[in-house]
């Protein structure tokens, strides 16, 4: 080129070009200011959008805009995307947003505005971008949205499968990081407004019980875990059969056998909150209904010591004195109706747990099938239970400890609760001392039990008939259902010349 034009010709051409550009730019400004003057704002933006459409090459991509809010409420898809994308951040990401509240255990990491995250779902490549814009109205603040771009041909797959997948994954992440709360009506309200639900106040449940720390029959433990998991999986099933998605457990057994610990273990396992409903704090059925309606889904409603609630309910929950007038407006049928009716159908994934030390004292209405789906007997400590406690409290994993044989024998001849054993095992750090202490404790307990039995039989040598009776009594105690107990009682009653027997002393 340089050989064809001299330098003076080049400068002449350049100045001509500049002057042409200047006059074009001037004319454009004139046209623009005239257009601004003459064409109304709405028409102008319409023309601009239409012209841009014709002049931009057709993109193969589709972009979904996912706003932070739907009107006044939060957009569930936006919230889910925020959580989901925190697990998809690549090493290439340049800016991240890190936050943590006092109550959170971990940092929350999110992408910063303008950042992009690329995700792959089967054969679809998806690009997420966080966009922040100024709100259109004055003082409306910043507007945040995610833009999700992908090839147009995958539209159905993204809407039908990918976005639902993001929602499910976000729920899983939320559950992993969730702090479990214990709601109580007596509890002082938490400072956090967010935690106030109706008349419930909450604290964070930091109960360490898990299924791994619970000393109980391994088969029963497995049965409970399987039952809980089946319950969670069966949303569609409950819908199909027209039943409310709830499950009831009745935990019964002597004090210190782990009923409350089992409830905490269930909550920790499922990541469900616990609503601890002290019946003494509820004055009427109407109040109960209001209280229950303000509980949330995915929660456990706990009513402890239901057999002791007779004073509260104003009539005995047990079989006697059913006609006694109510002292308060709260009745057993009110509780049961609430649980079976309105309240249960309002929510999803509800678990109800009643605990009692005396199953025999409960009203049959509470025990009828379908009301409490599973009756769980928390028993005295077994040898399996003791092994678990020894491993948890003393770190003894060997199966052949010299003390184990003696302790196993003692556990078979006396009834000790896991709470009693745990207390003994905690007394010292030295495993041998602790086990020695436990042996002495169990021996003492066995001797006391024998003494009590002897006293019951007027001190002297236990006559064979009474010994047989004692055997029957302990067999009956071990039986699982009341139906079984009654059957045994009737046959034994017939067979033995009853009347003088201790059977009469046992009330069913
Ligand atoms: N099965 C168990 N496994 C492990 N620890 C247990 C078990 N049962 C009781 N404990 C220990 O004893 C303590 C008291 O047990 P927990 O409160 O669960 O008993 P409970 O059956 O609810 O008694 P209560 O009938 O008096 O309410 C627990 O904190 C735990 O340390
Ligand atoms: Mg308890």
From TrEMBL:
Gene3D superfamilies: 6.10.280.40, P-loop containing nucleotide triphosphate hydrolases (3.40.50.300). InterPro entries: AAA+_ATPase, AAA_N_dom, At3g28540-like_C, ATPase_AAA_core, ATPase_AAA_CS, Mitochondrial_chaperone_BCS1, P-loop_NTPase. It holds the Pfam family AAA. GO terms for molecular function: ATP binding; ATP hydrolysis activity. Keywords: ATP-binding, Hydrolase, Magnesium, Nucleotide-binding. PROSITE patterns: AAA. This is AAA-ATPase At2g18193-like isoform X2. It comes from Herrania umbratica. The lineage of its organism: Eukaryota, Viridiplantae, Streptophyta, Embryophyta, Tracheophyta.
């Amino acid at each position: 080129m340089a050989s064809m034009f001299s330098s003076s010709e080049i400068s002449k051409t350049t100045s001509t070009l500049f002057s042409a550009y200047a006059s074009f730019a001037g004319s454009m400004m004139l046209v623009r200011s005239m257009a601004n003057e003459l064409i109304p704002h709405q028409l102008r933006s319409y023309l601009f959008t239409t012209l841009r459409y014709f002049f931009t090459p057709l993109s193969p991509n589709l972009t979904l805009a996912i706003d932070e809010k739907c009107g006044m409420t939060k957009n569930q898809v936006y919230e889910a995307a925020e959580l989901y994308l925190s697990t998809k951040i690549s090493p290439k990401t340049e800016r991240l947003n890190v936050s943590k509240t006092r109550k959170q255990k971990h940092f929350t990491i999110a992408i910063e505005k303008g950042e992009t995250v690329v995700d792959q779902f089967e054969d679809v490549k998806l690009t997420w971008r966080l966009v922040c814009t100024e709100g259109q109205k004055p003082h409306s603040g910043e507007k945040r949205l995610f833009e999700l771009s992908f090839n147009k041909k995958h539209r159905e797959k993204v809407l039908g499968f990918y976005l639902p997948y993001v929602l499910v994954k976000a729920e899983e992440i939320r559950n992993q990081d969730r702090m479990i709360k214990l709601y109580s009506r007596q509890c002082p309200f938490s400072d956090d407004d967010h935690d106030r639900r109706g008349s419930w106040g909450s604290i964070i449940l930091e109960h360490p019980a898990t299924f791994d720390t619970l000393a109980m029959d391994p088969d029963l433990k497995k049965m409970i875990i399987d039952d809980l998991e089946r319950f969670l999986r069966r949303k569609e099933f409950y819908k199909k059969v027209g039943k409310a998605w709830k499950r009831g457990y009745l935990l019964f057994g002597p004090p210190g056998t782990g009923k409350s610990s089992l409830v905490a273990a269930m909550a920790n396992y499922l990541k469900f909150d616990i609503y601890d409903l002290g019946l003494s704090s509820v004055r009427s059925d109407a109040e109960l209904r209001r209280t229950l309606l303000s509980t949330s889904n995915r929660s456990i409603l706990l009513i402890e010591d239901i057999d002791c609630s007779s004073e509260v309910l104003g009539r005995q929950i047990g079989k006697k004195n059913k006609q006694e007038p109510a002292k308060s407006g709260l009745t057993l049928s009110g509780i049961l109706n609430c649980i079976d009716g309105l309240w249960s159908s309002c929510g999803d994934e509800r678990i109800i747990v009643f605990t009692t030390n005396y199953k025999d004292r409960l009203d049959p209405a509470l025990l009828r099938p379908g009301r409490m789906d599973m009756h769980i007997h928390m028993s005295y400590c077994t040898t399996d239970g003791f092994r678990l406690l020894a491993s948890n409290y003393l770190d003894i994993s060997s199966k052949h400890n010299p003390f184990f044989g003696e302790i196993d024998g003692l556990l078979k001849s006396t009834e000790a609760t896991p709470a009693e054993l745990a207390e003994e095992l905690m007394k010292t750090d030295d495993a041998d001392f602790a086990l020695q202490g436990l042996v002495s404790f169990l021996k003492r307990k066995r001797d006391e039990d024998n003494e009590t039995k002897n006293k019951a039989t007027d001190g002297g040598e236990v006559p064979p008939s009474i010994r047989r009776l004692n055997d029957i009594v302990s067999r009956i105690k071990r039986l699982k259902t009341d139906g079984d107990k009654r059957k045994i009682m009737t046959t034994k009653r017939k067979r033995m010349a009853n009347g003088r027997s201790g059977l009469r002393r046992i009330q069913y």
